[in-house]
Write a structure and sequence with these properties.
Layout: H1 22-47, H2 49-55, E1 57-58, E2 61-62, H3 72-95, H4 98-120, H5 128-154
Antiparallel strand pairs: 1-2
Helix pairs in contact: 1-2, 1-3, 1-5, 2-3, 3-4, 4-5
């Protein structure tokens, strides 16, 4: 079945990347690669906001505490928001429904771009090495969803999502 085409019964099919052969596996891998760190960070932020503030990213580096004062409310809320974003990305990875995948990727891209931009506007609060490492890590949430969206546009449906029965 090709994307966006009616099923033999005449019912409209949901546009699914699962119908695109090998593209579905790469898309699923990419979505999981976005969902895993969002979930891990969301859980850490929600359950242990102060240790996230004091210790992120770990291994002796401290990227958050130099950025300003601690707020349990703000960090817990950010963790909850990341968990919500993760849920959408996990659902997209599971279903590979075209519209849901697009929304999930755009949501990560918007969040990633906003987060990256904030840190670009607040450089020099850490060492130059830490700034470069931080911006490199944050660019992951821009580059990967953008690349997946570009790849997705190559397999976009030729018809609308819903085909009228004849």
């Amino acid at each position: 079945m090709r994307l966006g085409h009616a099923r033999p019964s005449g019912r409209a099919s949901q546009t699914s990347l699962a119908d695109c052969g090998a593209a579905r596996e790469w898309m699923r891998i990419g979505l999981v690669a976005l969902a895993l760190p969002c979930t891990a960070l969301g859980v850490w932020l929600y359950l242990e906001p102060h240790t996230f503030y004091a210790d992120f990213p770990g291994f002796g580096a401290h990227w958050v505490s130099p950025m300003g004062p601690y707020s349990q409310h703000a960090f817990s809320d950010f963790g909850g928001a990341l968990l919500g974003l993760s849920l959408v990305v996990w659902a997209a990875a599971r279903s590979l429904e075209h519209g849901l995948v697009r929304v999930a990727l755009l949501a990560v891209l918007v969040w990633g771009t906003a987060h990256f931009t904030y840190h670009m506007m607040h450089l020099n609060m850490m060492s130059t090495v830490a700034d470069v490492e931080n911006q490199t890590a944050l660019s992951y949430f821009i580059i990967l969803p953008a690349a997946l969206l570009i790849d997705m546009s190559r397999t976009k449906p030729r018809r609308s999502l819903h085909t009228r029965p004849t």
